[in-house]
């Protein structure tokens, strides 16, 4: 089962489908294949190192950041199915020429974790697709909507293998692996379900001195369980590339977190092209994603590069997080101002 065949079969299950989303996904697939090729030979063709620019987040852009972004923008524009694009690497909304506009908007991080690229660490692409109510005549107001309106989300991880994980909703998440011999993504992880409870936590503990009491108490509880509980402490696994950390959490269970703290009071992860797509995937796989006090997909961003805190994982893990935040509600409320 190739990715192309899978998308076509999904289309056939919806008699009213126009095929536009199928074409849109083909352009995303092409972008992922191109980036995978560049990542694999980056050192050989001098694509490592800085490009000499910074993005809207104030982060130094790598050469591959710039190239990956250009490739995705060109492929998505050429599909004729998108009116707007939002990229981590571009300050403003990307407007598609009127003759090529379609009924969708796509948000994407073309190369998440690129600060690790020179060290050979797994990196990836994250994307989310929304349907624009007004189609090609849509205005930018139709982009800033709750995450619950997302219709497709996915990520592609570039490492020892190239894995693309995708969901169109309907409580179904599928994983594909690129076969370089034929240049096609093959279904290798059908119907992925995240375990309700795991044994791994993934968080940047270098920021722990800035955490609020709720976050600290939750992680202390899973690292230092009481003897009476009979529980074993969780193992720490943190790569520093969201795609890689979330992929492991999705397959093995546990929790991934990038909480708000005194240094980043609004959190660090971008809502439209990191938090929303990843939260959508986790929920469709049977898990949950919250900010600590509310569901991530209920957020409504006011700017295309807004940020939010994220805790995502199995249902039992998130229930523990909610309990910690409920216990420390007064502290959290006072320090959110």
TrEMBL record:
<dbReference type="Pfam" id="PF00316">
    <property type="entry name" value="FBPase"/>
</dbReference>
<dbReference type="GO" id="GO:0006002">
    <property type="term" value="P:fructose 6-phosphate metabolic process"/>
</dbReference>
<comment type="subunit">
    <text>Homotetramer.</text>
</comment>
<dbReference type="GO" id="GO:0030388">
    <property type="term" value="P:fructose 1,6-bisphosphate metabolic process"/>
</dbReference>
<dbReference type="Pfam" id="PF18913">
    <property type="entry name" value="FBPase_C"/>
</dbReference>
<protein>
    <recommendedName>
        <fullName>Fructose-1,6-bisphosphatase</fullName>
        <ecNumber>3.1.3.11</ecNumber>
    </recommendedName>
</protein>
<keyword id="KW-0479">Metal-binding</keyword>
<dbReference type="GO" id="GO:0006094">
    <property type="term" value="P:gluconeogenesis"/>
</dbReference>
<keyword id="KW-0378">Hydrolase</keyword>
<dbReference type="GO" id="GO:0005829">
    <property type="term" value="C:cytosol"/>
</dbReference>
<dbReference type="GO" id="GO:0042132">
    <property type="term" value="F:fructose 1,6-bisphosphate 1-phosphatase activity"/>
</dbReference>
<dbReference type="InterPro" id="IPR028343">
    <property type="entry name" value="FBPtase"/>
</dbReference>
<dbReference type="InterPro" id="IPR020548">
    <property type="entry name" value="Fructose_bisphosphatase_AS"/>
</dbReference>
<dbReference type="InterPro" id="IPR000146">
    <property type="entry name" value="FBPase_class-1"/>
</dbReference>
<dbReference type="InterPro" id="IPR044015">
    <property type="entry name" value="FBPase_C_dom"/>
</dbReference>
<keyword id="KW-0119">Carbohydrate metabolism</keyword>
<dbReference type="GO" id="GO:0005986">
    <property type="term" value="P:sucrose biosynthetic process"/>
</dbReference>
<feature type="domain" description="Fructose-1-6-bisphosphatase class 1 C-terminal">
    <location>
        <begin position="194"/>
        <end position="324"/>
    </location>
</feature>
<dbReference type="InterPro" id="IPR033391">
    <property type="entry name" value="FBPase_N"/>
</dbReference>
<keyword id="KW-0460">Magnesium</keyword>
<comment type="pathway">
    <text>Carbohydrate biosynthesis.</text>
</comment>
<dbReference type="GO" id="GO:0046872">
    <property type="term" value="F:metal ion binding"/>
</dbReference>
<dbReference type="GO" id="GO:0006000">
    <property type="term" value="P:fructose metabolic process"/>
</dbReference>
<feature type="domain" description="Fructose-1-6-bisphosphatase class I N-terminal">
    <location>
        <begin position="1"/>
        <end position="190"/>
    </location>
</feature>
<comment type="similarity">
    <text>Belongs to the FBPase class 1 family.</text>
</comment>
């Amino acid at each position: 089962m190739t990715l192309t065949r899978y998308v076509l079969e999904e289309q056939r299950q919806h008699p009213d489908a126009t095929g536009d989303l199928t074409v849109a996904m083909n352009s995303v697939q092409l972008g992922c294949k191109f980036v995978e090729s560049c990542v694999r030979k980056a050192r050989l063709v001098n694509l490592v190192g800085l490009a000499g620019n910074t993005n809207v987040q104030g982060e130094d852009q790598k050469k591959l950041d710039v190239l990956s972004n250009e490739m995705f923008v060109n492929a998505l524009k050429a599909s004729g199915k998108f009116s707007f694009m939002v990229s981590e690497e571009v300050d403003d909304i990307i407007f598609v020429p009127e003759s090529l506009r379609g009924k969708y908007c796509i948000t994407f991080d073309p190369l998440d974790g690129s600060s690790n690229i020179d060290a050979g660490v797994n990196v990836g692409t994250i994307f989310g697709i929304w349907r624009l109510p007004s189609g090609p005549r849509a205005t930018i107001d139709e982009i800033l909507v709750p995450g619950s309106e997302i219709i497709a989300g996915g990520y592609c991880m570039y490492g020892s293998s190239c894995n693309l994980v995708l969901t169109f909703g309907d409580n179904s998440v599928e994983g594909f692996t690129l076969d370089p011999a034929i240049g096609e993504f093959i279904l290798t992880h059908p119907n992925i379900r995240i375990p309700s409870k795991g044994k791994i936590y993934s968080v940047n503990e270098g920021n722990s001195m800035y955490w609020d009491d709720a976050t600290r108490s939750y992680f202390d509880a899973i690292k230092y369980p009481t003897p009476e509980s009979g529980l074993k402490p969780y193992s720490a696994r943190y790569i520093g590339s969201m795609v890689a950390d979330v992929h492991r959490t999705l397959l093995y269970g546990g929790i991934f977190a990038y909480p708000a703290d005194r240094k980043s009071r609004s959190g660090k992860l971008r809502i439209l092209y990191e938090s929303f797509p990843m939260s959508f995937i986790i929920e469709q796989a049977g898990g949950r994603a919250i900010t600590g006090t509310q569901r991530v997909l209920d957020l409504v961003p006011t700017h295309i590069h807004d940020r939010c805190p994220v805790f995502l994982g199995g249902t039992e893990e998130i229930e523990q997080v909610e309990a910690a935040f409920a216990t420390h509600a007064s502290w959290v409320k006072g320090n959110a101002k």
